[in-house]
Amino acid sequence: MDNQTVAKILRQTADLLEIMEANSFRIKAYRQAAQSIESLATDIYQIYQKDKLKEISGVGVGIEKYIKELIKTGTCWEFEKFKKQIPLSVLELLKIEGLGPKKVKFLYHKFKITSLIKLENLLKSHFLLKENGWGEKSEQNILKSIFLYKKFNQRFLLGEIYPLAQEIIKELKKSKFVDQIEICGSLRRQKETVGDIDILITSSKPRQAIKLFTTLQNVKRILAQGATKVQVVLKQGIGADLRVVKPESFGAAIHYFTGSKNHNIKIRWLGMKRNLRINEYGVYRIEKNNRKIKIGGEFEKDIFKAVGLPWINPELRENQGEIEAAQKKQLPNLIQIKDIKGDCHLHTVWSDGKENILEMAKKAKELGYQYLAVTDHASFIKVANGLDIKRTIEYLKAVKKADKKIGGIKILAGIEVDIKKNGDLYLPNQVLKKFDLVIGAIHSGFKTEKEVMTKRIIKAMQNRYLDVLAHPSGRLINKREPYQFDFNQILEQAKKTKTILEINSSYQRLDLNANQARLAKEKGVKMIISTDAHNTGSLEMMKFGIANARRGWLEKKDIINTKSLKDFLKQLKRNK
Questions:
Q1: Which residues contact 87 (CB under 8 A, 6 or more apart)?
Q2: Average pLDDT score, the chain
């Protein structure tokens, strides 16, 4: 049983317990354990074999026993007991914006709602209007949420699929049947959502390689199987394709199956202008007698060389100007994860994080960072366990105390403060000025009209102590659309007020998105890439923010936390 499956079952257990109104600390424990396991770099089975499960953050005696039973038998008697009380299909309802555990429990017990179809039918019948707490507006909002969920549910989040694909690659690389291997498709281009997993290999024994792929632990069923290609559905619900190609065509196939379609069309068109034919098998020169002579294809660089271009990074291959930039030798020198010097948006047990300040700092130190900013919530929203003025002062002292204890990394005192509906910040300036870094965010009023929301954000940015605007659009990928605001006006004000815009690395957010980040770069607005981590494992989500930045054509110079601590602090408006 792999990390993702164990984490999924633990999370499902937490959801079932929440619907059954179990002890909140127990629910939180299952969720924390799931997050920790999902972020592990080591296979959980290896940890189990070494009897070190309790060393995983959030895994106590009870959850350790739970995980051991899962690994040994593939399930757990307690999990099976919960499923008899609440069917797993009910959990899909929790993915709908506006439906919490209490409402889902009510819908199940009162109306036997176990699927989105049944819920839609109930909403359209208007029977719910007879129940307390269910009005026309909530009915309409939930129907809209169901529509959005269905619209986006065909694709999977990058952060969910990336570790799964890496596990598959790792297993295939161990085999003597696989010589060369590469991930292709939208996953290689690091798109924020992925439709399926495309894997290319070369093999001297293709049939054995195909058979090996079909017997991987994650494979649920085989859709199609041939001599050089197999299509399967994984237990996680996503499709995966394996193609076996000849070594002399490996590079051409990688380029072709990486895409995007529009990028490939443009490359083939450039080839035709040079009397070349480019496809997944290679590069061919067309002779006068229409005879094709193969002149490249073993390496991916052969494709670009054939049409007179330098290498173009996969993240840029969307036919959005990358080919023209390559022709002019104006491709960006894309940012890399090694350029990041510090993470400046994370949460601890002081608000809704899972670990304390020192634990987060030690992990950041392990990642090679020079500094980090702890930015717990100052909020009126209860679910975030937000700090009020009194607790904020205590928190500030705790951050400074932790900074004195640890060596080799600087802990900055930061805070994530709510932007109120009128554009004011939740904390007064006399408190905010005590911090090294203040990030502001919208956490309420998502359905505010566009003009009003734009004014709200602009007013917040005009505060001299608001250094960073966090997750600027408020979106949750596949779940909640961005709130409405005039992004061009926000960019103008960001440049005018020297407010930094965040690229949030949480794979549920990736906000700013790649197109917004590119536009911000063009307008001369500086950005920061942070994780919004709520536990030590989530600090490793930085790679997804980097991927988003690369898709947005960003370079090291565009991101302020690529700078040394001294130069980083100089970029903040409070220090200008």
A1: 114
A2: 92
Domain spans of the chain, in order of start: 3-152, 156-244, 259-327, 337-575
Encode 409-426: b = buried (16+ Cβ within 10 Å), e = exposed: bbbbbbbbbbbbeebebb
Closest CA to 372 of 338, 347, 398, 335: 347
- Here the tokens at position 308 are 């007179």
H or E element in which residue 410 lies: strand 410-418
Token pair recorded at residue 302: 């052969």
DSSP label at residue 481? P
- Evaluate whether the domain defined by 259-327 bears CATH number 3.30.210.10: yes
Q: H/E element holding 276?
A: strand 276-279
**Tokens 């070190």 sit on residue:** 52
User: Which residue's structure tokens are 């309409």?
Assistant: 140
User: What is the structure's pLDDT at 39?
Assistant: 67
Give the CATH architecture of domain 337-575.
Answer: Alpha-Beta Barrel (3.20)
Q: What torsion do the CA atoms of 189, 191, 193, 194 make, to the nearest 10 degrees?
A: -10
Alpha-carbon dihedral angle through residues 278, 279, 281, 283, given to the nearest 10 degrees: 0
Of 29, 41, 30, 28, which is closest to residue 7 (Cα–Cα)? 30
What H or E segment, with its residue span, contains residue 243? strand 239-244
Alpha-carbon torsion (58, 59, 63, 68), positive or negative: positive
Q: Does domain 156-244 have CATH number 3.90.480.20?
A: no
The pLDDT tens digits for 96-125 are 888 888 888 888 888 999 888 899 999 888
pLDDT digits 0-9 by tens, 283-338: 999 888 778 899 999 999 999 999 999 999 999 999 999 999 999 999 999 999 99
Return phi, psi of residue 326, to 5°: -65, -40
Fold adopted by 3-152: DNA polymerase; domain 1 (1.10.150)
